[in-house]
Amino acid sequence: MPHLIRVTFGVSKSLKGLQTTAIENVRGNTVGQRKVKADLILRNLKRKYNTKSNDVSQNKLKRTADASGYDDIILAKRPKLDQAIQKGLKQKAIEVTSGVIITREESVSRQASEKGFEKQNDRGPSDDLGLDQGVESDAEVQVQAHQEITAKILFTRPSMVNVKPAGITATAFSIHEDLLTVHIPFLAQAILPSSQPSNSMRQLNLPSWINYMDFTILVSWLHTGTLPMIDIDSPSSRFIHCHLANLWMLGHSLSIPAFQNTVMDSLRKLCAENQTGGFNYAWPSFLQAEEIYQRTAVGAKIRAFAAAALSFKRPVDKMGEDSEASRRCFNVWKRTPELFVDLCQASLRPECPWHDEARKMWTVKEDLSLKYKWEELAKGRKLTRAKVKGWNGETLRELTMIL
């Protein structure tokens, strides 16, 4: 069964409700990711035929479908989503006049072939920040791959683990054992054997050094491959940098390179969007950089990025020779001489550290792909067939489940 992608133009509330219901019954990536993909398709239509979104003719849509691989587009004068969904189970694409609903088989390779679309044809606000939209498309491909594996895992044997954080009042998490195995083998090895009957949930006690809120975000990433949205206009946005740095260090401690790279991309984007130019509000400060150096080992990517970001702001130029700020800076260098060395080296590099040209410098290498880890884990397991039913009771698809 193909995934469902939606573009909406002034659709009534009732139709939106039907669309949402249909989306929830089709396994795929998140609604937010589908909207991003749908916007990409819409811009392709508008650019190719220079027409408004709600004024696309049937012939133009058909030609676009043929050229883009979206086949069997159907136009209806009156949107009837329930009928469209039923037909969509047999067809690759459906379009209704008040909105475009496109269903098709998604694949990582297909998305990869489209990743250069924005870079070649559009220049948006990201260009001024040094953020390459092609790189953003690469990130979308990685998120898609992450969510496809997550969906496969969640449809396997219902082997859940009760993950209990340190502290009496902390709420425990129920996480699929295979999610922990493919993403965080360090924790998966610490799962305690069950002393109860075989159908009871096994338990994992988190070490006390894992922050509860940080782990909550990690659990969200395990299922979605993305981080929660960040409001850069919030008064507390200056502290979000520090939180992201803490998340990166959590991923480092648990050996999760993919999580570290997701956090680093968010940190780079936040640095680009939150340029204030003032030393007092720039991340990192000398004390924040010192804390990162104290909590990480030599060679950590977050060290190099923090030093490069600090050096690029040229904070020393804003200090007086005998000011209190310069004395604090000198004390930090005395306590953390390796930070001083990295600052000197970073000052010799002309590129902006958060621009995408420098992205590879801060990327943590992943030894094995997520797909390979999952395939290795699934080897030798029993296969069975299961039916997934929609909101109207009709069978949407049959799935192969791994037990």
Automatic annotation (TrEMBL):
Comp. bias regions, Basic and acidic residues: 111-126
Domain of life per record: Eukaryota
Spans annotated as Disordered: 111-133
Name this polypeptide is given: BTB domain-containing protein
